[in-house]
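Retro notes (design track)

What went well: tokenization of the new backbones is finally stable.
What didn't: we kept losing track of which sequence belonged to which structure.
Fix going forward: every design gets posted as structure first, then sequence, in one message. First example under the new rule, 344 residues:
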């Protein structure tokens, strides 16, 4: 039973490790585009390998190679003949799942093709150059549906670690909360459930704000939410400088900005904190291949972004009277929480 429980605890990190490290991304994308996961789900979650090879015309590939790829993708191989969905693949790769991220993976594959010959530079966390920005524009142009795909995928990832992170943030006495770059509101929805009387302001880019509003409308305590569709650079046009917040959240957003812009955002947030208010910054760990690649994906999504360092974050915050400390490092989600309070 314990082993079964551990198997079911497998999360997005393991899946993405398989995608990036073990299996070629193009094979994962191909399996999604061909409907492999939905086909197996429609058959009750188990199929014969021979049926899959026939249905998807993969006979020309060596049998052992195909079997190995299936295992890497999150399929259980029984007696060398039967493929079965695992909790990982059923959750993330079957379209009927609310956590489906297949479109996100296909997008990543398209970007990988566009960046052919440039990807290694990004893997080293260098700032994208003009050539790479051009490649991204050529790959997607202004397709707003891609913003929706990315927002939904990041929301699914955020829900994986939100409770784990929020356990380290004191929300019991929060009266006003601001979430900058709120995505689809996964973090603040939990806060509203824990503190139903809190006033919550969520700010997101106009292209995502309507998606956020639709999501907020489904929250139990939706009446306490205020959704602002704007770039954070225009925050003064929407939030009075005299308005103060007990908690401000910057989750997975700083790496999407140029270094100087990220510093400016921290300063703005620090100045909007009430005395003894909390600033919570959630970012990606480095030092692991999974997080390096996931970070790279985010660089690819947002043109011209940069990677502000931990010492820079702490220095800027301290200059504004907020003393940040590493409050938590999650080994399962690959996220780090920096938490600090505004001096009274």
């Amino acid at each position: 039973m314990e082993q079964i429980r551990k198997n079911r605890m497998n999360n997005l990190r393991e899946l993405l490790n398989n995608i990036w490290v073990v299996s070629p991304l193009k094979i994962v994308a191909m399996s999604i585009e061909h409907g492999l996961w939905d086909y197996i789900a429609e058959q009750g979650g188990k199929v014969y390998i021979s049926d899959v090879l026939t249905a998807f015309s993969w006979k020309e590939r060596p049998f052992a190679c195909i079997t190995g790829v299936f295992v890497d993708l999150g399929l259980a191989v029984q007696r060398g003949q039967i493929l079965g969905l695992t909790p990982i693949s059923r959750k993330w790769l079957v379209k009927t799942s609310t956590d489906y991220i297949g479109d996100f993976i296909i997008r990543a594959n398209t970007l990988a093709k566009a960046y052919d010959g440039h990807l290694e530079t990004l893997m080293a966390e260098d700032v994208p150059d003009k050539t790479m920005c051009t490649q991204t524009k050529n790959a997607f142009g202004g397709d707003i549906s891609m913003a929706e795909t990315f927002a939904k995928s990041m929301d699914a990832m955020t829900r994986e670690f939100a409770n784990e992170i929020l356990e380290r943030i004191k929300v019991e006495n929060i009266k006003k909360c601001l979430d900058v770059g709120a995505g689809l509101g996964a973090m603040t929805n939990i806060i509203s459930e824990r503190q139903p009387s809190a006033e919550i302001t969520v700010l997101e880019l106009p292209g995502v704000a309507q998606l956020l509003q639709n999501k907020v409308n489904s929250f139990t305590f939706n009446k306490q939410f205020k959704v602002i569709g704007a770039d954070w650079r225009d925050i003064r046009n929407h939030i009075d400088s005299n308005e103060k917040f007990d908690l401000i959240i910057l989750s997975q957003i700083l790496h999407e900005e140029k270094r100087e812009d990220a510093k400016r955002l921290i300063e703005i947030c620090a100045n909007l904190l009430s005395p003894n208010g909390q600033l919570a910054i959630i970012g990606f760990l480095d030092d692991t291949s999974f997080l390096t690649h996931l970070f790279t994906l985010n660089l690819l999504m947002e043109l011209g972004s940069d990677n502000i360092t931990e010492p820079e974050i702490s220095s800027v915050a301290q200059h504004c009277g907020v003393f940040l400390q590493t409050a938590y490092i999650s080994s399962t989600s690959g996220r780090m929480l920096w938490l600090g309070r505004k001096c009274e």
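Added context from the reviewer: The CA atoms of residues 53 and 61 lie 9 Å apart.
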